[in-house]
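Shipment paperwork, digital attachment
Item: protein structure file
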Amino acid sequence: MLWLFMLLALVLIVAFALVLAGRLPVVPQPTRERYVAVLPDQPSAADVDQLRLPVAFRGYRMDDVDAALAVLRNRIAVLEAASVSGSVPSAFEPPLAEDD
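Attachment content:
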């Protein structure tokens, strides 16, 4: 049993020496790059289809999901209010004809 512990200690010492000498690869540092999922002020169905949220350790970042849902909730509220009142929201108004 003593030989086993001595062999294990020798392996650890050699591995540590190789890491210090640069012969064994060192584990790289994790990257901190993160993209932000942003929806336009007036999202369309295509914007929702293209929405990608960054994945975190425990799934999606809660603040990113909350922000995206807030934009969608506001847009839906505008569309619902417009459908009740019968008016057309500004995003769906036809463009004005230009005078020549």
